[in-house]
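Example record

One chain of 272 residues, shown exactly as stored in the release files.
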Amino acid sequence: MKKLLLASTALVIGGPVFAADMPVKAPPIAAPASFSWSACYVGGHVGAGWSHDEFSDPGYTLPGFGPFQNFAPAGSSIDVNGHAGALGGAQVGCDYQFATNWVVGLAGDFSWANIRGQDSDPFFGGKNPGPVTLNSKTDELATITGRLGYAWDHTMVYAKGGGAWAHDRDNIQNLGAWGPSFCAGNNIFGFGPCNPSGSDTRLGWTAGVGVEWAFTNHWSALLEYDHYGFGTKSVALFDPNAGPGGMTGLANVSESIDAIKVGINYRFGMTW
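Predicted structure tokens for this chain:
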């Protein structure tokens, strides 16, 4: 009995000391949550664009005289290639990440632009006696696109494609006539150069590639290349000095644009 009492006392006294000497396992540290591209965003962009236009002359028929051309022979076209012009605007969209690394998204953007092209007519000379010049300008661009990307944590590469819209202004300077009419002038014969001009909107398509980097959980930066195709359209050009009361004639203009953009997005709603 005495031995049992001594053993019990030793266990009570020594138990806490023994427990204090045992290693204590620290609670596990939670792994940081992985970044997700599933979010909506708004942002802005700036960049540069280059246009490639081709002007051709559908001609007109003057009764009793046959067909006439104003600036290019039938079946010929004039390349009007643009120099680099600035563009800038805003974008909005949403992305969804799935199957670990894949991202799908839908976005829209709008750009103000100053993308110009100019060339001289190689076929016909103009009045006074300078060359005929053909001019194009794109001042607005917009797209609605889908994109498919592959992401490594905070970095994503992607391809995109969809519909595009553009607003253009075109003019031809120093023509000898426009349509079937000469243009009023202030020289002694009463005739001067014809300078018809007009604007139009175009629907087309766009395709591009890019890379986007999320430098915080909410902010990302992008670099993107886009190609726009707008096909050929008959553009109505008006000269108020041609004929009595002015004259409207047609020019067939095909257009494509290439652009490089850099941008920044603010991402929100990252709880999908």
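Notes: The chain has a mean pLDDT of 88.
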